[in-house]
Amino acid sequence: MPLKTEKILKKYNYGGRDRLIPLLQEIQNAEGYLSKKALLKIAKTLNLPTSKVYGVATFYNQFRFEPLGKYHIMVCRGTACHVKGSLSCLKMVENTLKIKAGQTTRDGLFSIETLACLGACGLAPVISINGKFHGSMTSEKSKKLIDEIKRKENENAAK
Q1: pTM for this one?
Q2: Over the range 30-57, which residues count as b (16 or more CB within 10 Å of their CB) and which as e?
Q3: Domain architecture of the chain: domains with CATH
């Protein structure tokens, strides 16, 4: 367990059930996600059943259980993006990477997340990769974008 995480857990040693969500948030901020090991430690620290900790963590969309990829892809599923075809973009990204939203590729290169709104409705449908917005996306543009990143990564690996 990372040293940062151990320090965080010590701050919550006196806490109870009411400290669970802030602790989950802080651990995720430190580690980037909630590992099984972290969930077990949180349960022990707060003297709660692990099932309770896991139940709360899985209830809220903000919590992740896998580390983010080097390229974190966020697909907007807000109303404007949905109406303009973001579902087909999402499906293409999932099919191209062979993972589903909420997962990370085995090589750790890509992760996918869906969001209710990225706040760029005028660019709908929108995909964000590591914070860079790509607007007016189509399934074909989505595939091309991922293929371009893969190509650059392969070139860099060959150097």
Answers
A1: 0.80
A2: ebeebbeebbebbbebbebeeeebbebb
A3: 3-59 (1.10.10), 71-158 (3.40.30.10)
